[in-house]
Design a protein that fits this description.
- The chain is α/β, with parallel strands linked by helices and 430 residues long.
- The chain folds into three domains: 2-22 and 236-364, Nitrogenase molybdenum iron protein domain (Rossmann fold); 26-230, Rossmann fold; 396-425, no CATH class.
- 45% of the residues lie in helices and 16% in strands.
- The strands form three sheets. A six-stranded parallel β-sheet has the order 1-12-11-10-13-14, sandwiched between helices.
- α10 packs across α11 and α10 packs across α12 (295-305).
- The longest helix is centred in the first third of the chain and has 19 residues, at 82-100.
- The radius of gyration is 25 Å and the shape is globular.
- The mean pLDDT is 95.
Length: 430
């Protein structure tokens, strides 16, 4: 763990490590992923079956083996605990209500001369959602990807998820049934991304691919971008915390570990002007580590990718956090909304002492698919707009084109595009 003050001689070197946390060594896996993509493009289902046998330790006999039946999804849903079922429904409802407020609308604007300008917003025809499976199955990720696609109005939604040993995660299947998803395929990794991007005999080609995954999935998404649209290139999970003396060290320690337990590569970063709080949080982290079932993963994450930084004041803390641009940012102060105007870069901001990052993962409503590794400086959370496209609308009356057509023709003439110029001039009244 980096435990430092901004006044330390080697602070800038340590801080540069944090800024580089999101770099994935895509070059090392690009050849492997590129070969997988080419095999899927060429051999389609046959290649899928070979990849499943190689990576997931089971061998599909026929094309039907690649699919998960709606009956098995219904059965999985029926078998889950009633309290968990209620929790999933609560999550679904809150996510849907929030995303409905994000849905962009078409609009038209009439000008007095008869010009009509506007924007038509249309859902994509199809979306492919990649959801991690096996031991790392997250039904919450399914909800966070399916619901905005449904709110957008996407008609064809498919899900790909790996099933090691041909054992689909029952909770994930239950979530599929809850969401009304009917097309789920037992395909994972770069193979799934390629199948959704180019299509096979069983998996239909889509327009947009979203969802989290490992470096092979991220690399595949990057390589198929342009053939399809994607949400983002996401790396390991991370949390940043801005806190002062009013914060509870015990709470902050477990909040940092809530990301550390995800992955050895996850980052947990506390920045505070309080040396006392920094010391207390460091002690509390060690206490909590012994209580965690995923202690080994969390400890490695904290030791190799964690940081506690003590600043001169909160202004300096905010400046550093804006440079980091974390996926999740908690603001643990008594007056967090006073700091909000100064926070420029974060995937999601959690304000106040009673707002742990985990509440956003499951039931708050906003999407938990967020930009990582500093990409919050230019990426936004997954939302309804990821599943929609905008089309410009333009309509000119005879009066309107006569009013401004000459300017258009002049610019076209200056650019040396004669047909452009004449297509306007032939419509002008001389």
């Amino acid at each position: 763990m980096i435990f430092a003050k901004t006044t330390d001689n080697n602070f800038q070197e340590s801080f540069s490590e944090l800024l580089g946390r999101g770099k994935m060594d895509i070059a090392n896996v690009s050849v492997i992923v590129g070969n997988i993509i080419q095999e899927i493009k060429k051999d389609k289902n046959q290649a899928l079956k070979q990849h499943i046998s190689k990576f997931d330790n089971w061998s599909p006999v026929n094309d039907e083996d690649l699919m998960i039946s709606t009956e098995s999804m219904q059965k999985a849903y029926d078998n889950i605990d009633e309290e968990l079922k209620k929790a999933l429904h609560l999550s679904y409802d809150r996510i849907k209500v929030y995303h409905e407020k994000l849905k962009p609308k078409s609009w038209f604007d009439d000008e007095p001369n008869g010009t009509i300008l506007g924007q038509k917003v249309t859902p994509v025809d199809s979306a492919g959602l990649y959801i991690p499976g096996g031991k790392a199955a997250y039904p919450s990720s399914l909800l966070m990807n399916v619901i905005p696609a449904q709110v957008a109005g996407v008609k064809n939604i498919i899900v790909c998820t790996p099933t090691p040993n041909n054992e689909p995660n029952e909770l994930l299947l239950a979530a599929c049934h809850l969401c009304g998803v009917t097309k789920v395929y037992k395909v994972g990794g770069a193979s799934a991304i390629a199948a959704m991007a180019y299509g096979t005999e069983t998996v239909s080609k889509v327009d947009v691919i979203t969802g989290p995954g490992n470096i092979f999935v991220a690399t595949a998404k990057k390589m198929v971008f342009g053939e399809v649209n994607i949400d983002m290139i996401a790396g390991p999970s991370e949390i940043g915390i801005l806190a002062d003396d009013s914060a509870n060290a015990n709470h902050l320690a477990v909040d940092m570990l809530s990301q550390a337990e995800h992955d050895e590569m996850a980052s947990s970063i506390l920045i505070t002007p309080s040396q006392k709080l920094a010391d207390e949080v460091k002690i509390e982290i060690e206490k909590w580590l012994f209580k965690l079932p995923r202690q080994e993963i969390a400890r490695k994450s904290i030791e190799e990718r964690g940081a506690i930084i003590v600043t001169h004041d909160m202004d300096e803390a905010i400046k550093l956090m804006n440079e980091i641009a974390p996926e999740h940012l908690e603001v643990a102060t008594n007056s967090p909304f006073e700091l909000l105007p100064f926070i420029k870069h974060a995937g999601a901001i959690f304000l106040g002492h009673n707002t742990p990052e985990a509440i956003g993962d499951y039931v708050a409503g906003p999407n938990h698919t967020l930009p990582t590794g500093g990409t919050a400086k230019f990426y936004s959370p997954l939302g309804v707009e990821n599943f929609m496209k905008k089309t410009s609308i333009i309509s000119f009356s005879a009066k309107a084109i006569n009013e401004i057509g000459e300017a258009c023709a002049l610019i076209a003439h200056t650019e040396g595009l004669h047909a452009h110029e004449q297509s306007v001039r032939v419509r002008l009244n001389k």
